[in-house]
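INFO worker-7 received task bundle
INFO bundle size: 2
INFO processing item 0
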Amino acid sequence: MCARDDDGRLPTLEWNQPETAVLRSFARLVLTPGVHTRHVHPGESFTLFPPPESATSERIGDWSAYDPADVTAFVPFPEQFRAGGHSAAYMETADLSDAPTDANVAFVTHYRAEANPETSERPPVPGHAHRRIVTFAFLSAMGVATPAHTFHLTEEWIAVEGIDGETVVRLTTRAANNVDRDEFLDQLAAQLLAGNRDLHEGNVFVREDGSVYCVDLDHGAVRHTHWEQVERAATMAADLAGAIDDQRTAPALEVGPGDVVDRTQQLASALVEYGVVPPIRRGLEDYDRILDAVGFSESVHCEHIAANVEYLNTYEQA
């Protein structure tokens, strides 16, 4: 949890460092160790809001190692994910078992695809690509472990690193027992700050070592305008903890909606107290400009996230 001294003050950051170092320090001082050490590797560069992945690239993100030419096969999403007019027909699982990358699979979504008049399936909304990449950038800037993303701006697809784990729905007892309560709270509290309210059991993966990862960020970067929205998202997070508890033989996590809200407000307060919001906003504005230039802008999502931080920092619960 957030470390403070005997007078309740936050540890002092070294402000003469580059912004990336300031953000790295925030992650190490404020987040639960298991959350940020999976993302911030000692001795390696801590790249935030990366520009196009090379001088000639039309991709943004942090997964330049992904190359469609390395894919052994593209497998359409299973039929059960296509109910209700969802866009799974425009999504694929890319087999990377023979590729020079740590991930065995990638999940690829094709935006702006033509609708199929013979089915009721809807193509993905382009604005969701914007939400997904900005949410990913914010979480990465905070130091929160997040699957790698790469977005091809002209071919209009996003590839997301597959997680070697299971969704909460299919969790093993061993993985459930390894989940750390504080790490779970930090991961889910960060999602609330990012405006991600799509926190159902199929969107949260847990590895065998208990590390928690949230995926499918295309409903992130939504602005909280009513406290009930925060409470509903916190209840979904608490329900996830309950589902994990159902598979545990270790002591239960016992996470309630109030625990999630309290930790979310603690993180918001720390972001403001450390002055971390301005550098994060500047980085997100770069993403907004890039995505607007290629016609993927749905809104100014960086402002939505900044507003969430301010709202959760100042709101006083009854």
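INFO item 0 finished
INFO processing item 1
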Amino acid sequence: MRWPKVRGLHWHRATYHEFNMNDAISRFAIVRQHLPVEFRDSVFVESWSNDVWVNEELVLRVCWQGDRERLLREQELLVALPVSVPHASVVASGRIANLTWMLLRRIRGERLDLVWSRLSIDARRDAVVGLGNVLSNLHDWVPPLKIRKMLLRSTQTVPASRDAVVGSTIVPLPLERVALLLDCFEGMPGMSEELLRRVRMRIDSLGSVVSASELQDGLVIHGDAHFANALWFEGCLVALLDFEWARIGPSDLELEAACREDPIIEDAAESGPIRASEVPMLVWLREGYPELFNREDLTERLWLYDLCYQVRRLSAPGIISLDQSQLKRLNILAAGPRVRFA
């Protein structure tokens, strides 16, 4: 990539006062000056929550929205994780003005969601069983007390604004967090009073299935373990990526991300809950991590997680009117669960 001149300055001489920090290239120009190694020939790649730049050897992630501490917590977590949880290794991390960044060694492979359509049934099974194995290893890990306290601080405090809630966790629990988001829906174009009332009532009725102690005394969970955060290479799941949303919580909270965009679950959503035994992904995940499913009220628990995630999804920064397809999904969830466990 060739670096253009801006206002007569080369990129390597820029300061954050000289650029619009709302665009990715300007943010990259600032962070690049502070990296401990050369970072050349990089390309910008898709990401939901950060700016991500990659070259042949390295990955640079820049956090510019929400809870900026996410990447710094992830850096500490990655350094502490055991080898039984395959993950990227950290080269460096830091803070510049209102940005945080982390530089990682690039791991060979493809995102599982992007390669999924090309995999055979046996390879898909191996991938999901492998994901279950990795999650089991993560949940078996006893973290240093410093890591546990760090993760608890990030989720036990109720942020003061909608954007702060959205920028700090994927599933906004404890309930005080999702309640703040629901309050922000009042009067928003597209959100009917009736739907908002039904969602509040449903979350209130489900809230008791997950206790406060599970969110405080639980395990280290990834928090966003969907296929886009799993790396596949030469027939193996080689890494779990993006631990920025890691938190303390119950192990089954991982099911929200695993089920989030499963096409079989999506196709069945309007006709009522699909049995978990009819969803291959869940059958394979159970093979890799049977203990994940050994819970009472698992139907209701996943239903609560799904509802909380959907409320967060509709609360993304910058939204001033609500997407009709996402409102439809919320309406379905207000009526019933998407998956039913035996």
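INFO item 1 finished
INFO post-check item 1: Residues 1-20 have pLDDT under 50 and may be disordered.
INFO post-check item 1: The first strand starts at residue 43 and ends at 45.
INFO worker-7 idle
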